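Lab notes, practical 5.
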Amino acid sequence: MELLARPDLNRMKGGAGAIVFLTAFFLQQYAIDTPVTPIRPYMLVTLLALIVACFHVISGSKLVFRLVPLDYCVFVFYFFLLFTSLYAANTKLAVQMFFGVILLLAAYGGIRYFLMRFDSDAFYRCFALIAKFYFVSSFLLYLMGIFSSLYLERPTVLLGESEAYALSWGVYFEGGVIPRLRGVTDSPNNFAMYALVLIPIWFFGSEPPRLHFKILAVASVALTLSVSAYIAIALMIATFVFWRFRISSGHISQRFAALIVAGAVTLLASVVLLAAFDGEAKEFINNMIGTRLEHAATGSGRFELWQYCMNIISEGPLWGFGLNQERVLLAPLRNLQSVHNNIIGAYFSGGAMALFLYLVLLIQLAWTFVSKVLPYRERVWLSLCWISLFVFSNVNETLFADSFFFSLAIFSSTVNVFCRCEGDEGGGEVSL
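Output from the prediction step:
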């Protein structure tokens, strides 16, 4: 493993720590079920890292963090949300989320600590290695799920928040029928959220993947059958074309956009041919398209949900309802656990102040690529990541999702690594 094949001990520890931390975020379906909340791998890794960090501090060693403006925005926003738990009506729900946010902030700090040790080459090699694992393992799990459901044992159909579903390895069967890729994560949308952050870094890195890896990554996202992912990809391509026509640079070429377009055309042609020549395939494809179009037309129930939420907000307090109170407020509508929108979610918890702090956070994220603090290549792929982040945060509530904290840590770490490489210190230091 080239990333770790360096003589410097601190660099080796940083490489191993970053790989373990980042990979642990993906492995959502391997959580340990408990009566309170599922214990996911990143939680266990974070707790272990906190124990090790405590021993380091007690022994007299210093933990040095190089903070950037985005770090301050993240911590101010989430500490304010933690503060709102003081006036939450349902204390139990607030306390559960309180400790969950603390753990997510600790995981964010862990990723920041390990990634900020990297130089630019190590940064890209780390993400190339992680992306290969993510897409290869997810696609293999998807194939295993399809094979298992066809030839071994049909998965048990379960009833979710708004629809029936079934799970088999790396497959999420929507309605118990439509096979959507979820890979190593616990849902197709979560897979797409991670994928559309990894793809820009991997494709535009110092060592871009070979063509077969690009095809695998794009095909995996396509197989999620996620309307949100397709919208994000369309906007990412448009943004990439804007950058491409504005300035030409290095490894960034039109091949990425051409690959996605060619993949989409190939997929569409395959669907048409199957529908034309195979009766069973035609029936299955018609059912699948009909179901997905119905979900797209209604936003999978989101439009009704958001209208209901706006009615509650119009009659609610200016300072919000407190941390994690959506489950109580949405109970009369459906058995939902979130409002499926970060802007509404921020207001629900902390009112106008939380909404303001969240918008400041979004603007600071955008500033990392709008300003000329970073080199051109990093500004391009960060803009694509931001678009993906923005799209998914408006169709899902990701405020307390591990994928959102994962993305935030990448943005701030990129400022650290590449500002430093350009001669800037990349932020102020804080020692523990």
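Observations recorded by the TA: The radius of gyration is 22 Å. Residues 120-152 form the longest helix (33 residues).
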